[in-house]
Task: inverse folding
């Protein structure tokens, strides 16, 4: 029956799909930047030696890593307004959820990155009179970050694929836009195949980028 | 909070049925665990094979491994499941297609765990490859030098070491298998997310109750997976062996 | 009905007063924030859905806009901002309860369970839960479905409804579930299911939009008759009074019938199809005597 596949509706649906894609990319970008910053802070908290600070950070990371993102998206969407009394749009809610959720994953990557820098470097920085935070900011983090760029990017394309889960709260991402169009025009299969291709193209490009960076960083080392 | 709490909802009988919502949840947990474990077996077997292929000297085999990984990890799981469920059966000869669509036992369950297994296999393959490549080159050379074939070198030297050092990242993937199993509801498997959604509907909107129990169960599943892998890690640990990153 | 008349009277009395300060509940919220948020559905054809430019349109959107006009008049504020928030069958009730949306203009069945958490406007549409089948299958009734796969959509009332029919008539279906109506319909289209049980207006829309509409038919006696209504917050007599007065008025003046004809009996976006979905007797009766009776009062015979 799929000899009757009809892709002629795709041009009609393109404006909606681009709008959805724009949101998926926006969500990915904001959650990546926010997640890396927050994740780095969490990683530093875990490595700082502060007992309670470290435990709190570990607890946060463990919980976030145990709950399916889909569940997390639903929780935040229902709970934030219930707790604050302030209604929140689905786009904002998705951005907050993704940032907080991804922070846990980025923090594990950053922690590994920081630990990959020889301990002697911290000592050297302290010896020349830097504070702990200065040594982190000027010596350790820039290197840790550079070493971890490929892994951070890999996590980011997992994040990009996961944006497809925001359909659960009615935010219109790439997948949701395609689904709506498929429903409107009665061409669900065609729309799915088309967006699969878009996802594949973007993720494949990203994975090639990761590969290229891995090679470059191998040279630096 | 302006919310109508009702924790007794779990002991209520579902509309026009004999079960309680609690029975639904237990049912759902059963499917979640089954899908995750079945998918994990597929992921581990295929992921190991494909990950290993990516490190062998033969270019053709390496390409197969590479294509496998790129294909299965660059499309969101949700779409892959859709394609397996709705598109692939249409490509089969008509009789086979009809069998898959109507008569195959537990068809939704099988489609779901196969799709999840293949998706996860690409990630496992990446970990296996990373583990093999993290081993000092000397190990392979030593294996070949004492007269092992390539296959024997992998079997007796490289893989036993590689698998031990990738247990921590595999733990994450194992936990991910549980967390990702939720997409199975999109093809109609009565797993935890399906139950949670249906409960919200049939109880007239008891959202928090319907979400919290599945969430806790997911956390428990992830914790169990984590602990299981930790036990394996302790048993399999190679004393004194730390891989340089 | 006396309670309702009281509400109506109090609403009218209030609207005669001049000061805005008298408003409370949702009206106060709208007045304070100078905005009203409508919950919309993205694919509840043709009650509430998105057109090609992702703009929400549909019969219930039009009805809600009439309510918005009434709110503007009531608050003497012609410049209210109207926000649209997409909702799903999963989150519409929590979002109403937590104040994210002020009116839900989708396709929500008014039933007693839901009335514990929210309130409803007078019924503006009545849907019959029926089944769509392929004409070639020769299926015309529920009795033909024994042992056969039947599709419905996750998280809808139809799931429980099928369970009830299975039990009541001792027919054994093999239920299959789509995550949304498009998937459920695809199950019918690809022969994963021989029938799709759902609200008839949605089925009519899916069939009209499908590749070959003439292959499908809506068959069988209704499994259930469900009043579909605009949803609002509970325990908010002032706002409810205004909404009820507005819709009752529209029903009596014929404005509602006109809107019905626009969406159900004429070509509609995006493809310009005409559903040709004549008004049911139940809805005709409601136009003459609007009420907000729950589904339970429509299906007493079972």
Result:
């Amino acid at each position: 029956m799929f000899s009757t596949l009809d892709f002629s509706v795709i041009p009609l649906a393109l404006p909606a799909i681009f709008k959805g894609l724009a949101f998926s990319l926006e969500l990915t970008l904001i959650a990546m930047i926010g997640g890396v910053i927050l994740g780095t802070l969490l990683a530093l908290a875990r490595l700082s030696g502060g007992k309670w600070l470290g435990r709190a950070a570990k607890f946060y990371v463990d919980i976030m890593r145990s709950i399916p993102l889909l569940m997390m998206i639903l929780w935040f969407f229902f709970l934030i307004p219930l707790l604050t009394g302030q209604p929140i749009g689905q786009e904002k809610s998705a951005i907050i959820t993704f940032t907080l959720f991804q922070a846990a994953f980025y923090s594990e990557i950053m922690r590994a990155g920081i630990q990959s820098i020889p301990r002697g470097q911290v000592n050297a920085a302290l010896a020349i009179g830097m504070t702990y935070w200065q040594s982190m900011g000027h010596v350790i983090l820039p290197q840790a970050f550079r070493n971890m760029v490929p892994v951070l990017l890999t996590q980011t394309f997992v994040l990009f694929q996961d944006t497809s889960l925001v359909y659960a709260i009615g935010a219109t991402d790439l997948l949701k836009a395609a689904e709506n169009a498929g429903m409107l025009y009665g061409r669900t299969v065609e729309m799915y195949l088309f967006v699969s291709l878009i996802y594949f193209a973007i993720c494949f490009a990203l994975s090639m980028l990761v590969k290229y960076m891995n090679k470059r960083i191998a040279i630096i080392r | 909070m302006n919310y109508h709490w009702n924790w007794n909802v779990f002991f209520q009988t579902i509309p026009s049925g004999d079960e309680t919502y609690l029975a639904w949840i237990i049912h759902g947990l059963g499917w979640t665990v089954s899908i995750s474990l079945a998918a994990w077996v597929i992921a581990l077997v295929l992921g190991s094979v494909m990950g290993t292929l990516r490190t062998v000297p033969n270019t053709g085999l390496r390409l197969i491994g590479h294509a496998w990984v790129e294909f299965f990890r660059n499309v969101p799981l949700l779409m892959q499941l859709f394609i397996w469920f709705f598109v692939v059966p249409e490509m089969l000869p008509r009789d086979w297609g009809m069998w898959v669509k109507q008569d195959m036992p537990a068809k939704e369950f099988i489609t779901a765990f196969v799709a999840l297994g293949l998706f996860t296999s690409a990630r496992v393959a990446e970990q296996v490859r990373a583990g093999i490549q993290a081993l000092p080159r000397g190990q392979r050379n030593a294996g070949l030098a004492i007269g092992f074939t390539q296959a024997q070198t992998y079997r007796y030297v490289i893989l036993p070491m590689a698998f031990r050092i990738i247990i921590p990242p595999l733990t994450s993937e194992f936990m991910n298998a549980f967390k990702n199993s939720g997409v199975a509801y999109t093809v109609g498997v009565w797993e935890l997310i399906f139950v949670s959604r249906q409960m919200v509907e049939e109880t007239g909107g008891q959202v928090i109750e319907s979400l919290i129990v599945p969430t806790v169960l997911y956390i428990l599943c992830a914790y169990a997976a984590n602990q299981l892998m930790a036990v394996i890690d302790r048993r399999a640990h190679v004393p004194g062996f730390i891989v340089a990153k | 009905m006396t309670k309702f008349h009281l509400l109506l009277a109090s609403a009218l009395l209030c609207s005669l007063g001049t000061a805005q300060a008298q408003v409370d509940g949702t009206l106060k919220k709208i007045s304070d924030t100078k905005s009203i948020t409508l919950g919309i559905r993205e694919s509840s054809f043709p009650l509430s859905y998105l057109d090609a430019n992702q703009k929400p349109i549909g019969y219930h959107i039009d009805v809600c806009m009439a309510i918005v006009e009434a709110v503007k008049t009531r608050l003497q504020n012609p410049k209210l901002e109207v926000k649209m928030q997409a909702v799903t069958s999963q989150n519409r009730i929590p979002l109403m309860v937590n104040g994210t949306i002020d009116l839900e203009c989708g396709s929500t069945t008014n039933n007693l369970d839901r009335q514990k958490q929210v309130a409803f406007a007078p019924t503006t549409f009545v849907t019959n839960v029926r089944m769509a089948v392929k004409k070639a299958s020769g299926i015309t009734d529920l009795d033909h479905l024994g042992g056969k796969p039947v599709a419905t959509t996750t998280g809808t009332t139809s799931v429980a409804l099928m369970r009830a029919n299975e039990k009541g008539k001792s027919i054994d279906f093999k239920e299959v579930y789509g995550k949304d109506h498009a998937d459920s319909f695809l199950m019918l289209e690809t022969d994963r299911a021989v029938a799709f049980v759902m609200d008839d207006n949605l089925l009519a829309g899916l069939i009209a939009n499908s590749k070959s509409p003439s292959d499908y038919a809506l068959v069988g006696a209704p499994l259930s008759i469900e009043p579909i209504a605009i949803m609002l917050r509970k325990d908010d007599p002032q706002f409810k009074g205004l909404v009820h007065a507005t819709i009752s008025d529209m029903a009596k003046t014929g404005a509602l019938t006109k809107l019905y004809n626009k969406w159900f009996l004429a070509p509609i976006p995006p493809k310009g199809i005409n559903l040709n979905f004549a008004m049911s007797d139940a809805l005709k009766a409601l136009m003459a005597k609007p009420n907000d009776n729950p589904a339970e009062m429509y299906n007493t015979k079972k």
